[in-house]
Amino acid sequence: MKKRTLLLVISLGLALLVLAACGLKKADLQGKWYVQDATGQNATINFSDKSFTMDGDKQGYKVTGKGFENSVRYLLVKIDGDDYTVAFLEKDKKTAALIKTDGDKPLKGRIALFLSKSEKPDYEKYAKKYKDKLGIV
């Protein structure tokens, strides 16, 4: 019985450690982001707790999960019933890609936007820089 309890405690501890290692929370997404799409169009997005505003248009969103793959931390979000992934491309969480996901693979799909908290992103430059992390061919 003691062995079983010890095994359970160790398993729970490891599970908590893995969750903590993800190191992402909804607050990492919140705030002002500069964005650019594949056509080169620039905009600013402000994320709050349950909605975001882009060029004056307000839209709701919901964080549905989080994960870690290929050294990329990500949040799964639902916008207008569609599934997206916000992939944080650097450890400081100030550079990200918004991916319209294909099926159940969070880092596979079409990159809708590149986001940056510190500068206006250049879609082509970011696509080249992060192609290995995101599996861009």
Please explain how this structure is put together.
This is Lipoprotein. Keywords: Signal. It comes from Streptococcus sobrinus W1703. The protein is an alpha+beta fold. The protein has a single domain, classed as Lipocalin (Beta Barrel), CATH 2.40.128. It is 23% helix and 46% strand. It is built from 3 helices and 9 strands, in the order H-E-E-E-E-E-E-E-E-E-H-H. A 9-stranded antiparallel sheet has the order 4-3-2-1-9-8-7-6-5. Strand 2 and strand 3 form a beta hairpin. The chain is globular, with a radius of gyration of 17 Å. 23% of the residues are buried. About 12% of the residues have low confidence.
Which tags fit this structure?
single chain; 137 residues; Lipocalin; nine-stranded antiparallel sheet; 46% strand; globular; Lipoprotein; signal
What topology does this entry show?
Layout: H1 2-22, E1 31-36, E2 42-47, E3 51-54, E4 57-60, E5 62-69, E6 72-79, E7 82-88, E8 95-102, E9 105-116, H2 123-129, H3 131-134
Antiparallel strand pairs: 1-2, 1-9, 2-3, 3-4, 5-6, 6-7, 7-8, 8-9
Helix and strand sequence:
HEEEEEEEEEHH
pLDDT averaged residue by residue? 85
- Name of the top-level CATH class: Mainly Beta
In DSSP terms (H or I, runs of 4 or more residues), the helix count works out at 3
Reported for the largest beta sheet, the result is:
9 strands, antiparallel
DSSP helix fraction: 10-25%
